[in-house]
Amino acid sequence: MNAALGAAGLAAFLALGEAVPRLGLVKEAYFPPTSRIAVALGDEVRDGAFWSALGDTLTGWALGLVIAVAAGITAGVVVSVVPYLRAATASTIEFLRPIPSVALIPLAVLLHGTGLRSVLLLVVYAAFWQVLVQTLYGIQDVDPVADETARSYGLGTWARIRHVLWPTALPYVMTGVRLAASVALILAVTAELVIGAPGLGARIAVAQTSQAVPEMYALIVVTGLLGLLVNVGARTVERRALAWHQSVRGEVAV
Amino acid sequence: MRRLLLRVFLVLALPVLLLLAWWVASDGSTQVYWPPLRTILRTFPDVWTGERLRADVLPSVLRLLAGYGTAAVAGVALGTLIGSHRRVRAVCEPVLEFLRAVPPPVLVPVIMLFAGIGDTMKIVVIASGCVWPVLLNTVEGVRAVDPVMLDTARCYGITGPARLRHLVLRGASPQIFAGLRQALSLGIILMVISEMFAASDGIGFTIVQFQRGFAIPGMWTGILVLGLLGFLLSVVFRLVERRVLDWYHGLRASARRSP
Amino acid sequence: MLDVRGLRKVYEGSGRRVEAVRDLSLTVEAGELVCLVGPSGCGKTTLLKCVGGLLTATAGEVLLEGRRVTGPPPGMAFVFQEYGRSLFPWLRVGANVELPLKQKGLAGARRRELVADALESVGLADAAGAYPWQLSGGMQQRVAIARALAYEPRVLLMDEPFAAVDAQTRADLEDLVRGLWRERGMTILFVTHDIDEAVYLGERVVVLSASPTVVREQLKVDLPASRDQLHTRVAPRFAELRTHVYEQIQAAKRGAPARVTASDRPPPH
Fold first, then answer.
1. Inter-chain CB proximity B233 and A225 less than 8 Å
2. C64-69 — which CB contacts under 8 Å span 24+ positions?
3. What's the CA gap between A37 and C118, in Å, rounded?
4. Mean pLDDT confidence for B97-107
5. Mostly located where (chain B) (predicted)?
6. Residues contacting B90, CB < 8 A, separation 6+
7. For chain B, what are the domain ranges?
8. Using an 8 Å Cβ cutoff, are C171 and C203 in contact?
9. Which of A144, A148, B40, C129 is the most exposed, having the fewest neighbouring CB atoms within 10 Å of its CB?
10. B146 → chain C, closest CA residue
């Protein structure tokens, strides 16, 4: 029932995209009808350069995400476990986190030009905070009684991290990873678009400057589908990883 | 008193330490891209004069506020509409999921086609990027309003606009604020990018000008200004949120104490 | 005052049909305190929600003072079992009680008077400025009762209001409801699964069958009007009545056919 309604909604959306320019409500030059975007998409898919651009974008995204997740989790655990470190870093984290990663674009351009490292710098900076903050929240949520119990049974720091902190924090960490995955994609495409690092974003910029409007829309649709895959994939991974968990927690509104 | 001192110490110690480390490490630096912090700070007042604040920072902030405000109002209004009707939600869900998934910066070239390169373009870019997190979180929030509260409202004749104001929007407000917070960081990103693409004023424009002219200390001050702006906006957001969601944090804390 | 005639409620969803209430008739006189008691899982809440206009009956009708109930009628107030989810956590206690009065369009002075009076009646005069979640469960349910009182309903519907509070608080709240009823002369329809509570509180106890629900027996409680936890509950007549109701409910659970008893007559001594 819901699937049918959803499909109807999607069909209506596509039909609207076809009808609005055909009826002359907006200029076709600015907003090509769905069918022309579809044709352009077909051309893209047959073009080898498109696939290498897609590969570049995915490389930047995945590499950046992995680095950010590893760094975020490690930093989160260290900051939480070492006494006083949480309190001492709180103000610094609160100051650094809201700094928009795009502020680093000029620096990235000067340091790394249009290379992969420029993309990575932006992606890692943006995604890192998502993981770090959720990890901190997760560890803060650890039941003090459970931790005390573990201590009284003589579990060492490592064992406590492994058996008490980690299982409690995992749902939060997964939320952080999910948020980081979509932020990482946004920043990867942004870096390509603005800096010109090779990838889908750069291809969109090229299509724009060469007035290839249908191609530009087709590429935007591809980024949207990519984003959709990332969202759905991250949610699936999250559900799988937490299937054993007694309560799949909602994300903290931070 | 001692506890207060300890708190102040913990808040200030690391930032001071980091700044000192930056100062010492960069002092006497001859690398072009990493000028000494001393130089950056000396350049700062020369670059960010009152005139520049008026000519570049103010337009940026105004465009951000206009776009963000539009997105907030449109997102909450549409989200409430969609979230209140099961059928409408089912029809819209796939399309919304797709639209949300489009990385907002790619909208810049599209919107430039329609709106040129003026203020309108930048405001539309910011609004059309920020609207999705607000919209989707509002849908979730409205959908999750407690059925017992809805029954209560019906029993006591709380219907129509009053129901919306006192029940639906208040009940959904924690999720709405989560969406607004995501939207704020997106908004700043889009503000900068739209100015880097095509502009004649704004913080993003200024930073890129410095970078292209290899005025490296100037560029660094621009990065600092953006950082400060992000921090300030997040502080203001937090203050507003704390006021509006006071009850929610209290409720969560009390639920935590007695599970 | 309140007439339920041939009420029937069938839930339908994804190929399943559940008949919760079947052909149920019931009359409540003005100023009566009637307790509905039945085995757990019977359609008590469904019945009460139909009476309150929150659910639409599949067949039959509910009349309040001769007028057919199609939505929540203005002269009726509802106290829910889930006090924590029925009070608005973003409003302070006073504002929670006041909100329905604002909707009624009462003037500010009159509203303040009613709020103060209602909170006073439930013993929470000092709590107006607190948030509901700062109070204990029993106190939250008192707030919900105060909200109902301030609304000045002619009929008060209570759906297992004390099922989620501890035993001592429960006894206090039972006495509170009984006291308010005697003082204010409202009509109260009180749903519970607790037999002792039904007999202690009610002037009349309506025993419901297992689902699909019908009225199994109606029973007049011939205990003195002035009751207290200490003496009433050990009175021999109380024991007889509760034993009788208990047997009826056990029979209802087994699905034994109801003895046809004339309604409103106490069982023989």
1. no
2. C64/C1, C64/C2, C64/C155, C65/C1, C65/C154
3. 66
4. 91
5. membrane
6. A1, A2, A5, A6, A9
7. 54-243
8. no
9. A144
10. C85
| Chains contacting B (3 or more CB pairs within 8 Å) | A, C
**Residue B153: Cβ within 10 Å count:** 24
Residue corresponding to tokens 């029925």: C86
Topology at the third CATH level for domain B54-243: MetI-like fold (1.10.3720)
Burial letters C98-135, b for 16+ CB under 10 A, else e: bbbbebbebeeeebeebbeebbebbebeebbeebbbeb
The answer to whether the CB atoms of B219 and A106 lie below 8 A apart is: yes
Q: How far apart are CA C22 and CA C55, in angstroms?
A: 15
Look-up of token digits 């000029």: A106
- 3-state DSSP assignment of residue C170: helix
Give the N- to C-terminal CA distance of chain C in Å, as an integer: 30
Q: In whole angstroms, how far apart are CA B7 and each of A245, B2, B50, B234, C88?
A: 36, 9, 35, 22, 36
Tokens coding C44: 């008590």
CB-neighbour burial class of residue B129 (10 A; exposed 0-12, middle 13-18, buried 19+): buried
| ipTM of this complex prediction, to 2 decimal places | 0.87
Q: How many CB atoms lie within 10 A of CB B66?
A: 17
C-beta atoms of B204 and A102 within 8 A? yes
> How many beta-carbon pairs under 8 angstroms link A with B?
174
Residues of B in contact with C98 (CB under 8 A): none
| B247 contacts C90? CB cut-off 8 A | yes
Mean per-residue pLDDT, C263-268:
58
**Residues facing C2 on adjacent strands:** C28, C64
Closest residue on chain A to B210 (Cα) = A106
User: Mind telling me how many Å the CA of B119 is from chain C's nearest CA?
Assistant: 39
B216–A110 CB contact, under 8 Å: yes
Distance CA C258, CA A118 (A): 81
Per cent of chain B over pLDDT 90 is 53
Shortest Cα distance, chain C CAs vs residue B156, angstroms: 5
In this complex, how many residue pairs, one in chain B and one in chain C, have their CB atoms less than 8 Å apart? 68
Q: Which of B145, B150, B151, B155 to mutate to test the interface with C (most CBs of C within 10 A)?
A: B155
The pLDDT tens digits of the residues spanning B175-208 come to 999 999 999 989 999 999 999 888 888 899 999 8
